[in-house]
Write a structure and sequence with these properties.
The structure holds 2 protein chains of 2 kinds. Chain A folds into 3 domains: about 15-75; about 80-115; about 120-268, Rod shape-determining protein MreC, domain 1 (Thrombin, subunit H, Beta Barrel), CATH 2.40.10.340. Helices cover about 35% and strands about 30% of the residues of chain A. Chain A is built from 4 helices and 12 strands; from the N terminus they run H-H-H-H-E-E-E-E-E-E-E-E-E-E-E-E. Chain A has helices at about 10-15, 20-45, 45-70, 75-110, and strands spanning about 120-125, 135-140, 150-155, 160-165, 170-175, 185-190, 195-200, 205-210, 220-225, 225-240, 245-250, 260-265. In chain A, the strands form 2 sheets. Chain A has a 6-stranded antiparallel beta barrel with strand order 1-2-5-4-3-12. In chain A, strands 6-7-8-11-10-9 form a 6-stranded antiparallel β-barrel. In chain A, strand 10 (about 225-240) and strand 11 (about 245-250) form a beta hairpin. The radius of gyration of chain A is 26 Å and the shape is globular. Chain B is built from 4 helices and no strands. In chain B, helix 1 (about 5-25) packs antiparallel against helix 2 (about 25-40), helix 1 (about 5-25) packs parallel to helix 3 and helix 2 (about 25-40) packs antiparallel against helix 3 (about 45-55). The radius of gyration of chain B is 14 Å and the shape is globular. The chains are: A alpha+beta, B mainly alpha. The interface of A and B includes residues 29, 30, 133, 138 and 166 of A.
Chain lengths: ~270, ~90
Amino acid sequence: MKRPFSPNLSALRRRSGLLSGNALWFVGLVVVVAILLLLLRVFLPNALTAVARPFWTLGTSGTSAAQNISSSFQSNASLAADRDRLMQDNASLTESNRVLGVKVADLEKLSGAKEPVAETIVAGVLARPPVSPYDMLVVGAGAKSGVVAGALVYGPGGVPLGTIDTVSPDEARVGLYSAPGRTTDGWIGDAHTPLTITGEGGGSFIATIPHDAGITVGAVVSVPGPGALPMGSVVKVDADPSSPRDTLHIQPYINLYSLTWINISTHS
Amino acid sequence: MDKHFYTLIVKTLFGVLGVAAPLLFPSLFAVAVVVVSALFVPSIALFAGMLTDALYYLPGHYFFPYATLIGLAISIMATFVQSFRKARIIG
């Protein structure tokens, strides 16, 4: 007598990768971990960063130790030459800064107006690119320190870097202007020609401008802050004869990879 | 030393290293560490990707949590590699 067809499910499970116990266990683990991380990020944002904080500190210490070791292999002569050059640079910059300070004071006296000093919160950088694969910073100041979402973030020397994206009680995440595809309106050159700067990732920017604007390498790019704040300069101009617009490659003044402290404005 | 005990220690070490990599190392180096770790514990890559996105992903600026996708791809590839090794097809 012919037996009716009845699939042997246990044998199928053993042969099929999709139905195997290992695969089901793996999918279950993925779902559990994803839900756990999502819940942690939404309801306990401090918990994740609190766990990560010592690792970030360790990573930063390791990087600086590696830099120290690599610099110890440089010859004494080149280090002495570097020191002399930096001392000269420092002296000339101090002098020009003093001259500019006097000029500003004279102009303020002349116009009778004085720009109010912006209040900022100083925050240490916990994580930065390239440890963070995205163009963002995690900083060690949050709502408890008065940080609010949307506040402007400045690097050393008042160079604008981005805005506060999310805030937890003890930490905040900074979305950098250089995030891929992020557009920021600004100005370029001495004539303050308006342009839209687009983030390229890794701290760099790109922009297009009419060829007639006559922008060359070294032109200063500014973004709105209190006034126009210089944030970088043009390092390369791609001029296509068939296009009426030039493509500008912009490098920020601040090296994001070695950023340790930032200033956050107290209002958004 | 017992072979199973030795395997367990290696898996634990690479597991911890794979999870800590997104917190300690530059992202490209972290990917390399995670790939090596995933050869021993495939699910570590996915976990590392999710952890990376949980810590660093900014929804407003990026369309998709890329680290999770990369982690998933590495996990799937590592699972295949491990199954091939178990079946003595490679290794």
